[in-house]
Amino acid sequence: MAGKFNLNQLLSGASTQAGEKPAADAEQETPRRPPLKIVSLSVHDLMPSADNFYSVEKVEELKGSIEMFGVLQNLTVKPLDNGKYEIIAGHRRHRACSELVAEGKKEYEYVPCGLQTERDEIKERILLIMTNSTTRELSDWEKMKQAEELNKHFSELKKRDNLTGRVRDLVA
User: Fold this and answer.
1) DSSP letter string over 17-54?
2) What is the DSSP letter of 11?
3) What percent of the chain has pLDDT over 90?
4) Residue of higher predicted confidence among 61 and 5
5) Which pLDDT score is estimated for 82?
6) Which residues are CB-neighbours of 90 under 8 A, at least 6 positions away?
7) Coil, strand or helix: which one is 103?
């Protein structure tokens, strides 16, 4: 299916077209993105992204899960110039751990974070949306805002990187 706009290929660079298997002797394509380096960071050093439009309220159930099992999924962050880190994905986990720390539970201060060093604002905004799209029940407003933002960012990415395919297929 040449010419299709492939989200996995776009974000990871490592996927192949559906149904196609690389030849055994074919040279493997190197992913565009290096793997994330996982570091443990204090919740006090993490700043929410101004681009996050999702609700971070009602984290009681998430706090209970974190108390029982720990943080099971890394937050994704990028370094800022002031020694702090901006959260790309994991705003609710950050909020839940921050509340636990505020309750005197210091063992939740440090959380596992995937350190995003590639600077690509458009892809970071898409990642924020994609990681939130299936994590919980979204309000109708969040669903509409998500579709609007994805349309805007995929359109920008398509122009910038001269990609083929239809943006509306990805938004859908």
Assistant:
1) -TT----TTSPPPPPSSPPPEEEEEEGGGEE--TT--S
2) H
3) 37
4) 61
5) 94
6) 73, 74, 75, 76, 77, 111, 113, 131
7) coil
Residue with tokens 């899960």: 65
Cα gap 102→117, rounded to integer Å: 30
Contact 169, 155 (CB under 8 A): no
What does the alpha-carbon distance between residue 141 and residue 135 come to, in Å, rounded to a whole number?
16
What's the angle, vertex CA 110, arms to CA 107 and CA 114, rounded to 5? 145
pTM assigned to the model:
0.63
| Token code pair at residue 66 | 């974190």
114 close to 37: Cβ distance less than 8 angstroms? yes
The number of beta carbons lying within 10 Å of the beta carbon of residue 20 is 8
Sign of the C-alpha dihedral computed for residues 137, 142, 144 and 145 taken in this order: negative
Helix 60-69, helix 91-102: angle, nearest 10: 80
**Encoded tokens for 118:** 């590639």
- Residue 115 CA to residue 79 CA, distance in Å, equals 8
Do residues 76 and 113 make contact, with C-beta atoms less than 8 angstroms apart?
A: yes
Question: Mean pLDDT score of the chain, rounded to an integer?
Answer: 79
